[in-house]
Amino acid sequence: MSKNKSSELSQRLSEIIVHGMQEKKANEIVRLDLRELHSSVSDYFVICHADSNIQVNAIAKSVEEEVYKAFGQEPQYKEGQANGEWLILDFVDVVVHIFKTEKRAHYGIEELWGDAEIQHFQSA
């Protein structure tokens, strides 16, 4: 698959992920475009936060359902469902970070990847 085609697919995947987050009223949804960063592990990070562990898990479930409906794809890797404070869904080209509100600032993912282009999305 060409780099361009792969990039288009990862962008579409990131849009589906944002939609899944919006469905569950995620807070401060951002997409970091990592494609131009040479040390990047994926094309995009999509990040949001929620006020409770229950909402963190509901957002993750919504993202997984939307991605599966669109692409028939499950996350390659999942971490954090037990504590619901920072949940990661790794779809290889797009990595999803869902934080409980107070944990997002603590870990500062956006600051760590400060060179990335950032796009903000509204909740639905």
UniProtKB/TrEMBL annotation:
Pfam families noted in UniProt: RsfS
UniProt cross-references to InterPro entries, sorted A to Z: Iojap/RsfS/C7orf30, NT_sf
Major location (coarse): cytoplasm
BP GO annotations: cytosolic ribosome assembly; negative regulation of ribosome biogenesis; negative regulation of translation
Extent of the signal sequence: none
Keyword Repressor: yes
GO cellular component annotations of the record: cytoplasm
Alphabetic keyword roster: Cytoplasm, Repressor, Translation regulation
UniProt cross-references to Gene3D superfamilies, sorted A to Z: Beta Polymerase, domain 2
GO molecular function, one term: ribosomal large subunit binding
Annotated compartments: Cytoplasm
Known function: Functions as a ribosomal silencing factor. Interacts with ribosomal protein uL14 (rplN), blocking formation of intersubunit bridge B8. Prevents association of the 30S and 50S ribosomal subunits and the formation of functional ribosomes, thus repressing translation.
Quaternary structure and partners: Interacts with ribosomal protein uL14 (rplN).
Family statement: Belongs to the Iojap/RsfS family.
Stated name of the protein: Ribosomal silencing factor RsfS
Native species: Sphingobacterium thalpophilum
Species lineage: Bacteria, Pseudomonadati, Bacteroidota, Sphingobacteriia, Sphingobacteriales
The encoding gene: ybeB
